[in-house]
Amino acid sequence: MLTIDWTREGGWGIPVIEEFGDLAISPAATGLHYGIQCFEGMKCYFSPSDDSLRLFRPDLNMARMNSSMQRLAMPGFDGGEMIELLKKFCEVEKEWVPKGAGYSLYLRPTAIGTHPFLGVDVSDHVKLFVIASPVGPYYPTGFKPVSLFADSTNKRAWPGGVGSFKVGGNYGPTILPAKEAMEKGFNQILWMFGDDDEVTECGAMNLFFVVQEGDKKVLWTAPLSRGDILPGVTRKSIIDLCESWDGIEVRESFPKMPEIKKASQEGRLLEAFGAGTAAVVSPIERINYNGYDINIPATGELTSKVWDELNGIYYGDIEGPEGWSVRV
Amino acid sequence: MLTIDWTREGGWGIPVIEEFGDLAISPAATGLHYGIQCFEGMKCYFSPSDDSLRLFRPDLNMARMNSSMQRLAMPGFDGGEMIELLKKFCEVEKEWVPKGAGYSLYLRPTAIGTHPFLGVDVSDHVKLFVIASPVGPYYPTGFKPVSLFADSTNKRAWPGGVGSFKVGGNYGPTILPAKEAMEKGFNQILWMFGDDDEVTECGAMNLFFVVQEGDKKVLWTAPLSRGDILPGVTRKSIIDLCESWDGIEVRESFPKMPEIKKASQEGRLLEAFGAGTAAVVSPIERINYNGYDINIPATGELTSKVWDELNGIYYGDIEGPEGWSVRV
């Protein structure tokens, strides 16, 4: 693992790559009491095209981590230098990067407040660390579409809250509702907001719909403008790709569940999928909304096209836009 | 410190009281990534009346900690047994309980997910620990009234969120807004919610107003019913006391800032104070609302009466309601 300590007096210390092992943390550390913690999810891919290791848009992860840390009054860092450290880390750990389609080394940059002080205050000590784990294909036997329960009770985030930051406190509270949804027979939760049941996210992923409007196909997802949606790297990449493609219009506005239900009833709801680093895209086949089942064609054309394109870029088989695939 | 580990297979392990020291925590522990962490604040008081150590309504802290843990899909525990452990802990550490008015041993029961698993899922390993620190009088030279900045941008909590649980993720996001308010010359933030600027809490305290309505004095605070207000032990105790007193009516509903401003302009805003374990009561002398300063008589009659009564019960000088002051 890679660790770097920060103190208010001394700034960032010397980065160390060392054997994975327990951290010694004061029981009074702010990271254990006040949710002073944030993380990123990234992957390092082996590209058979040139035997290289590659990261995908690491600049976006570093920008988001900086923004998460600063929201929790932790220090910022130099994203470019951190990418160099991540490259070094991947190089040192290269034997852990598995080869083959769908395989990668998952990287988890994390920052926690280590200041042993029980006042709810700015942390004077911070630890940034990166751990890693080899991961296999998310869909070893082809896409496995998921079912969602549209939760009208629990809200993942709120305007004026911290839903647009990747902070720990956004995740813990989702586990119990997700467990309850699973006990009802669903895979994940669809998070709604507001009196008109706006669709925000699903599980820990951004959520996309594809709807037919006249002779147009529209890719529809919640916007970042209100500050309650996580600015996903996969989300942004899908939007960037679709904006460059013919035949699909991108719409960033809050879909309302009644609109989605209506589109489904009129046969205009063509596709739906979650998007995130772990699954890339996760096709949705059913959404239960107020007891009504909205059924969606399991894996649509655009879902597959996005999947193929992104995976192609991840593994260096497709030359993506400049700066997306970064050689270690 | 007191530590108890829990595993899904083995349940709660043997409690250990040991020297204060760093915890060995896996860098993959859920408590460091997903905000699987909650805490309580309590105090152990030395009572000169009978040379006893006392806790104040520990059953309420244990009930709230159970509810926080379960909200984060952590296991529950037996509150009564935990109080016995806390008593044992205070007895062992009795030399750390300072004597004198306003002095106490602050106790911090905390629970964190220690399961080293990066999926956002139920934690199979949990650590509950209690650390302690002697604390002195919050107001060594008499009450020090605070000024509040009514924040119209940041929201501490929301319906469908976890504002009624004492989970870590509620605290980290308040630090940056509080720092900004301090830079503007205020001590703390007054948290509002909704289009009509309902008053919810201030800083990390519950918030009370005392207003004159005709010949009635009303103690006014936000209700717990919507699930976005922390069920404070001090809050409940103040309500319980005032309900037993003549001449004051307790109202649990959301005060709206325009109503508070109007009451102030009409000379009917008599008192305002925050309430919590650390400060007990914290008189408020000024609230800045949309640039307008609401000035409040610095420390009112009821604030002082509540202060005297609660401190009397904490230290055993006043015999409070049954079960409030618990001898170690």
TrEMBL record, chains A, B:
<dbReference type="InterPro" id="IPR043132">
    <property type="entry name" value="BCAT-like_C"/>
</dbReference>
<dbReference type="GO" id="GO:0009082">
    <property type="term" value="P:branched-chain amino acid biosynthetic process"/>
</dbReference>
<comment type="similarity">
    <text>Belongs to the class-IV pyridoxal-phosphate-dependent aminotransferase family.</text>
</comment>
<keyword id="KW-0808">Transferase</keyword>
<dbReference type="GO" id="GO:0008652">
    <property type="term" value="P:amino acid biosynthetic process"/>
</dbReference>
<keyword id="KW-0663">Pyridoxal phosphate</keyword>
<dbReference type="InterPro" id="IPR005786">
    <property type="entry name" value="B_amino_transII"/>
</dbReference>
<dbReference type="InterPro" id="IPR001544">
    <property type="entry name" value="Aminotrans_IV"/>
</dbReference>
<dbReference type="InterPro" id="IPR036038">
    <property type="entry name" value="Aminotransferase-like"/>
</dbReference>
<keyword id="KW-0100">Branched-chain amino acid biosynthesis</keyword>
<dbReference type="InterPro" id="IPR043131">
    <property type="entry name" value="BCAT-like_N"/>
</dbReference>
<dbReference type="GO" id="GO:0004084">
    <property type="term" value="F:branched-chain-amino-acid transaminase activity"/>
</dbReference>
<dbReference type="Pfam" id="PF01063">
    <property type="entry name" value="Aminotran_4"/>
</dbReference>
<dbReference type="InterPro" id="IPR018300">
    <property type="entry name" value="Aminotrans_IV_CS"/>
</dbReference>
<keyword id="KW-0028">Amino-acid biosynthesis</keyword>
<protein>
    <recommendedName>
        <fullName>Branched-chain-amino-acid aminotransferase</fullName>
        <ecNumber>2.6.1.42</ecNumber>
    </recommendedName>
</protein>
<feature type="modified residue" description="N6-(pyridoxal phosphate)lysine">
    <location>
        <position position="166"/>
    </location>
</feature>
<dbReference type="InterPro" id="IPR033939">
    <property type="entry name" value="BCAT_family"/>
</dbReference>
<keyword id="KW-0032">Aminotransferase</keyword>
